[in-house]
Amino acid sequence: MHTVVVGTSGTTPEDVIAVARGNARVQLSEEALDALARARGIVDALAAKPEPVYGVSTGFGALASRHISPELRAQLQRNIVRSHAAGLGPRVEREVVRALMFLRLKTVASGHTGVRPSVAQTMADVLNAGITPVVHEYGSLGCSGDLAPLSHCALTLMGEGDAEGPDGTVRPAGELLAEAGIEPVVLREKEGLALLNGTDGMLGMLLMALADLHRLYTSADITAALTLEALLGTEKVLAPELHAIRPHPGQGASASNMAAVLKGSGLTGHYQEESAPRVQDAYSVRCAPQVAGAGRDTLAHAALVASRELASAVDNPVVLPDGRVESNGNFHGAPVAYVLDFLAIAAADLGSIAERRTDRLLDKNRSHGLPPFLAEDAGVDSGLMIAQYTQAALVSEMKRLAVPASADSIPSSAMQEDHVSMGWSAARKLRTAVDNLSRVIAIELYAATRAIELRHGLTAAPASLAAIEAARAAGIGGPGPDRFLAPDLAAADAFVRSGALVAAVEAVTGPLA
What we know:
- Keywords: Cytoplasm, Histidine metabolism, Lyase.
- The chain is built from 19 helices and nine strands.
- By secondary structure, the chain is mainly alpha-helical.
- A hairpin with a 5-residue loop joins strand 8 (318-319) and strand 9 (325-326).
- It is elongated.
């Protein structure tokens, strides 16, 4: 099994996804263990002094003015975990919990938090044992980090609360730790706070969304090309010299992808051969590279923000190399929250333009010779009429999800935490938006491949034919009389979501952007 080594200098998106989704094992480097020990020595020295230090010998948040005596400090650290593990609602997905646990371990291992090496090792052991704390949907305001979600994870390290075992069964965490031979941690000064104070949940969800969206943007370029082909449109608008004079990188990449898919097509270029020739294709077809390209550039910006956050040590207070322990505001989730919201906007617009192309394929007045709703016997058959309803419902929800969470703020902690990021909420709605986008693209794929097969006497591009062949092999039905449609649409969604569409096309075109 793949092993991810955690050092002091951050990690990579690939490592996060390997741990979150691929169950990769986690190992602390000697460098990280040394850094942990050095930082802990500084915290221990401060704990022995009479002067109050936030998180070491004081209360938290609005209660930071109280000095905590040494005999109460272990109780203080236990109490912050127990009291902050206050989430409610449905369980958060296993991959999200694993991502936030791993990212918290990454920050702990940086040597800026003052956590003992043994605590960090226990965090790695829990991940490696396949034990996943039960984390709930609601509880994070995205400031002071993802407090409630991380608290539920810290509770598991203490052997308290519930967790999911490697067999998928939810049981008391203490039982699961015992079966795995893991000793529950007894937290000392600053450690409870250090386990809770980070942007790890929202960052983990951002990284997974970026990976999913990269695949979906490539998939959308493919389905846009298939629709252009099915509508007998022109590929001339994809010429590189047209995109060179508006040099947005994403636009050029999307146009290049579409052109690669359409290479050798016998369907394109017929737009001026009708009784009422088209001078231009509709915007949803002609402007596909501009819209998808803008989204690609948004992905690039979000990836840059994610890379900076991955290189960060988010905690409060932090242990600095010169031995100072200083309070700060680096836990504020604004940088991550903004790009999570930005991605939801881009995803909604990509879904919107894909739905417009699908509707055009189904409308006999705009489809340039295709049967109404791509039906076998229109009137007797309804064809894909209601598939477009489903797509429209998905897009409508995506538009609602595009309303930014980060524009909101609700003061908390007796006005000490009087401005929050809502980054966790931005991440949660983005996950729904990404799921919906996959379904929207799948429905365009379903309609476009059927439409191409209804263009009798004309031969599609080799890449298009490869996509159709792979789709049919995956159980996605082609033209014919009405049938139970939901299984076909589910198969199309799985085909897009798995990357099989991209793989089928790239077998002909070579790598796409």
